[in-house]
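Protein modeling request. Please complete all fields; requests missing the sequence field cannot be processed.
Requester role: graduate student
Desired output: 3D structure, token encoding
Chains: 1
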Amino acid sequence: MQSASPTSSRSFNRLVVFGVGLIGGSFALALKQANAVKQVIGVGRRAETLKRAQALGIIDAIGDASSVAGADLVLIAAPVAQTETLLRELKPHLQPGTVVTDAGSTKSDVVQAARAALGDKIAQFVPGHPIAGREQNGPEAAIATLYHGKKVVLTALPENSPEYIAMVASAWQQCGALIHHLSADEHDAVFAAVSHLPHLLAYALVNDIAARSNADRLFQYAASGFRDFTRIAGSSPEMWRDISLANRSALLAELDAYTLQLSTLRAMLAASDGAGLEQVYARAQSARQAWIAAIEAAEQARAYEQGGD
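Delivered output (309 residues):
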């Protein structure tokens, strides 16, 4: 995974966002804060949600698929299962020069959906995935700083022009994000391991505890370790249902590997193999410490580049 070199800042006259919750709303707020967009139009399934987004200043107007006409940039920030339907709705209004991107957590299925929906306009779709989030949902969760220092992975298509890729990259960079590039297949394999599996495990643990007869007592004594491990179980069930199914093959492979790891740990525990357990724990601790150190080093380098201390 390699970072892209910075692209020149670009101003957008009209941005259309499908899905004005955490991801889409934060994108709009960030571009507004950067003075990089003149008008933001929100599109969504629920009128009440769109009205709240407008009242919060996330969007300037409420629109529909036809609002894409004349837009510079369109962001699809809806559950991935809705991608094909939304692209089919906006295609008749998609004019030359308008670029569409998305924020889906899976990419191979999104690319397939885009090819089916857009046909000869596929070159105008540049797939993307911002690696940022919070456990809160809805317009109220949107913040302009959500993408500061976070990675955005672009899985550009062969049909995409350098100009269109640069346009999408510029938008995310003005949100404070760092651009990386992967193929769709590479993306899905990576995120099955480091994102999709952890979400599945967090949901499973909380669901298991909640189903027990003494759940209230167990939750009463759950402290910071349980809270930290299960934080992501507060994410949108609808969104993660779609992600899990969309990346089913890669997620199953990761789940099988993790199940094998658990079986190994169970055997060590059953055999009172303290040395074996400690070895596994030590390797995990060392790997995590190295990962955190790498993150901190990257943050310090970025602060230095921006003139920080």
